[in-house]
Fold this sequence. Notes:
Elements: E1 3-7, E2 11-17, E3 20-26, H1 28-38, E4 42-46, E5 49-50, H2 58-63, E6 65-67, E7 70-71, E8 78-85, E9 88-95, E10 116-119, H3 125-137, E11 143-146, H4 149-154, H5 156-165, E12 168-172, H6 173-180, E13 193-197, E14 203-207, E15 210-214, H7 227-240, H8 245-259, H9 266-270, E16 284-286, H10 288-300, H11 322-330, E17 337-340, E18 343-347, E19 349-352, E20 355-358, H12 359-373, H13 380-384, H14 388-394, H15 407-424, H16 428-436, H17 441-449, H18 462-473, H19 493-502, E21 505-507, H20 510-518, H21 524-545, H22 549-559
Parallel strand pairs: 1-4, 1-10, 2-8, 4-6, 5-7, 10-11, 11-12, 12-13
Antiparallel strand pairs: 2-3, 8-9, 13-14, 14-15, 16-21, 17-18, 19-20
Helix pairs in contact: 1-7, 3-5, 7-8, 10-21, 11-18, 16-17, 19-21
Amino acid sequence: xxxxxxxxxxxxxxxxxxxxxxxxxxxxxxxxxxxxxxxxxxxxxxxxxxxxxxxxxxxxxxxxxxxxxxxxxxxxxxxxxxxxxxxxxxxxxxxxxxxxxxxxxxxxxxxxxxxxxxxxxxxxxxxxxxxxxxxxxxxxxxxxxxxxxxxxxxxxxxxxxxxxxxxxxxxxxxxxxxxxxxxxxxxxxxxxxxxxxxxxxxxxxxxxxxxxxxxxxxxxxxxxxxxxxxxxxxxxxxxxxxxxxxxxxxxxxxxxxxxxxxxxxxxxxxxxxxxxxxxxxxxxxxxxxxxxxxxxxxxxxxxxxxxxxxxxxxxxxxxxxxxxxxxxxxxxxxxxxxxxxxxxxxxxxxxxxxxxxxxxxxxxxxxxxxxxxxxxxxxxxxxxxxxxxxxxxxxxxxxxxxxxxxxxxxxxxxxxxxxxxxxxxxxxxxxxxxxxxxxxxxxxxxxxxxxxxxxxxxxxxxxxxxxxxxxxxxxxxxxxxxxxxxxxxxxxxxxxxxxxxxxxxxxxxxxxxxxxxxxxxxxxxxxxxxxxxxxxxxxxxxxxxxxxxxxxxxxxxxxxxxxxxxxxxxxxxxxxxxxxxxxxxxxxxxxxxxxx
Length: 596
């Protein structure tokens, strides 16, 4: 379990909604803390603490460690809130009571035990900022903060200073309009995260200059009190546990949606681990029996070893620029196919250096040739300043043609990578040194890459996991993960094709099956349904087989030659033939993305 400290408060509220008035426990700090506890974090809350706990707050006190000055129940904050539906509400009356007693001198002596400290909305943005500065001075590893409309309006510049100083920030669309001129204008510095909730519209996840939208879980709204704080707490719990920012937000959506279906924090107080799992897209599901059959076969395969990423396409072991090379080239491992009239047309195959090279081999060789011609080519500053003409020359085939189907995207990714590292004043070597100094080096590296262009955009971290594999398996052994750290699945389109054909994942919707068989371009939601199911299947396969993810990945990657894109599968030569479902008419999702 991860530790989270929430600085905020609990209150006793009067709520008006749907023609009725109710009394309930409340407070941004309480909602955030209890939601984080529901999502699996070990949570402390610094807030005025009633010497005699009111019955309405007893469930909260049982879930969290409550720190702070002792007060009477009458001294607790009291809020009156009117809800208008659609997530809109008005703070009718606010009595902040003993919240004014909170000050940075009451912070725990050792803040290093917490994965993150969240400063919930207080009566004053200035006091939030003072808490943040005190936490930063005390060496807090990561600091989050939130706001609300009244303080954003009355203390706009102070809230903006709070936003600029925090590592993670939460606001809603209305507050984004006040502070940023609108959610669409949201940008934060490299290394910073911003979450903008949109009610039933979901949420925006802003990672530096990159923004992703996460859909809300469906719900019948009764009382929207605390929904945003619930989303905040559950998201922070997932972030502290190592989740990608987009996945953290996605995992928080079901709890936030459930919250609005009952009065006040009733759902949080009744929440158990049994109802914690986020719903999956039932159109594509893992076939557990097929995974087990395949796992037994994989476990028995002799000489199943990972690839060490040495050979003619790569710098030799010990090369001075090899680390920069792998950081800069791995993020380019995507998009090696062309489409025509909304359908998959063909894979990338072109002559380069006198040899026909396909997909990733073409990319590796192109970048290795560029590095040999210019030793600083892969350095972050060089990638940030990369010009289109230079990249076209690097990817030119022997016959003078340009075979890369998504050249513009490759240029954008290179520049985003270089720009983020330059803004962070980071280098690949420094990122590795930091990761290897942490108790969980692999997790630390993956979380660092969540802030780096070319890697941060993918919630399933395909390229980040591939880079981690390389850093672990290369002769230099750059990354030294802890013994129990599992490598995430590396889900590219070859693996998705194999899993669909083998029956490890099964698509049940006729329209989706038809589109996969016809190699039609898919909507993003359909692609996500397949890819996320494949991700889960690979996790289960690794766990059941006892084989490393690195070894499994290399086995499936090589299997692409026996189950290719454009010709009939050579089932007789495939080690998986005995357990394969032989659904050879199926094809991987067709969607242009920089993820794989």
